[in-house]
Amino acid sequence: MNSNISTESVIKLNEASLARLGDRVQVFTYDRHQIVNGIVHIGVGGFHRAHQALYLDNYFQQTPDLQWGICGVGLLEFDRRMRDALHSQDCLYTLVERSEAGDRARVIGSITRYLFAPDNTQAVIDAMADPRCRIVTLTITEAGYYYIEGSGEFDANHPTIQHDLQHPNQPIGVYGFLTAALDKRREQGLAPFTVLSCDNLQGNGNIAAKMLTTFARLQNPDLGNWISDRVTFPNCMVDRITPATTPADIKMVAEQFGIDDAFPVVAEPFLQWVVEDRFCAGRPELEAVGVQMTDDVHPYEMMKIRLLNASHLLIGYLGTLAGYTYVHEVMADAAIRQAALRLMAEVTPTLQSVPGIDLDDYKQTLIERFANPKIQDRLPRLCLNSAAKIPKFILGSLRDALRQEGAIDYMSLAIAAWFRYLKGQDDLGNPIEVDDPMAEILTQRARSGGSDPRGLLGITEIFGNLPQSWRFVETVSDRLRSLDEFGAKGTLERQ
């Protein structure tokens, strides 16, 4: 334990204790009790608390405009722990930025209310229907949009969607809640709110618009048309590496900063947010705190998703197969680090020019960010829900590279490494736990297919028509055979 902090002096985080935290941690000086919740955020996890909530905390600290506070919402049983932690701490939490230069902690106050939907469905609907709510933001993961990748259509047959269509007053999914709140506003003659997706989807606003309006029209065509005409769905690009909070993080916050926080969040120093300036009900002047407002987010989205997120997948699968646990350990392996750089080199010709960004500098910065040993980012986080990530992070680049007759070796290696990973055992014979909603069919096809990837490639909701490219199929097949025979490290030596 830090010699300055004894066990007895660790302070439970809440509003009453803020004045006792001392100078070890940065604490806001604005008056939280004057804040109006102009934003409802669905999906309060580590990323939201290290990113959007931080930007709003900075905004309140620097401007007198306090009408953009955040009411957090959890829809899933999984969110119960977040409810308990935030309710016990007056919705305060500690954010620690970690780097080799040192750890910096601050208390974030921009979330002033938290609602757990299973406790009170109507309270969530009412919060979004409140005329003071002008933006609803989302971090619901790639899988939360009920978007069928192969066709680009809405998954209307999903059990959650079917439930919400049949029980519009008792929703359990995001679209059910959004339509219930928007319908209430429409009936009361109120203007709608903006829906702002902050998830790693290319064209995230466009996807949210298509999925929500499709759902709404299935429920009530008039409401669907009203949403289509009146609601705006800005696209945005978000970036900050934010690993899942661990017991070690909770202990670190107590030992280094003297704070008893049930659910702190740790993140890297890097931070970026690029937002399409299209809000139907007003917005905070986020430019004041470093948010880049633009007419076209698309080049930034492509850059981030195709370089950072795709590299994360390659690192995650190869690193897991090679027996590593943490991202920084993988980046210390020269062969895997070189593979990540070569993947980025393959992707680069598929990108558009990005205003104000030097792509060579950006790629080098990514490697440095991945190598940050203080983040302790675990590989299972990168590999989570890969069936939803692979199409969004890699397959678009692959299609473009095939059209351009460009190189696809390392993108195909990422696909092959995923297929090898799905067999559930690393190169040392240790078990791999595949955490994916499609795990059953994925693992079954991976094991039955052996070194032949065609069974997995035939899952059209993931790969669409890509297997019609013999070059793609042959390249993936070659890499999968090599991974089976030589392992991840042996394959990289032969590349």
Automatic annotation (TrEMBL):
Keywords linked to the UniProt accession? NAD, Oxidoreductase
Signal peptide residues are none
Annotated catalysed reactions: D-mannitol 1-phosphate + NAD(+) = beta-D-fructose 6-phosphate + NADH + H(+)
Domain Mannitol dehydrogenase N-terminal, by residue range, is 38-287
Q: Which Pfam families match?
A: Mannitol_dh (PF01232), Mannitol_dh_C (PF08125)
Sequence ranges assigned to domain Mannitol dehydrogenase C-terminal in this UniProt record: 296-483
Q: What positions belong to coiled-coil segments? A: none
Top-rank lineage group of the source organism: Bacteria
Any GO MF annotation of the entry: mannitol dehydrogenase activity
User: What does the entry give for GO biological process?
Assistant: mannitol metabolic process
EC numbers listed for it are: 1.1.1.17
What family is this protein classified in?
Belongs to the mannitol dehydrogenase family. UxuB subfamily.
Which protein are we looking at?
Answer: Mannitol-1-phosphate 5-dehydrogenase
- Please name the source species: Aliterella atlantica CENA595
Specify the taxonomic lineage: Bacteria, Bacillati, Cyanobacteriota, Cyanophyceae, Chroococcidiopsidales
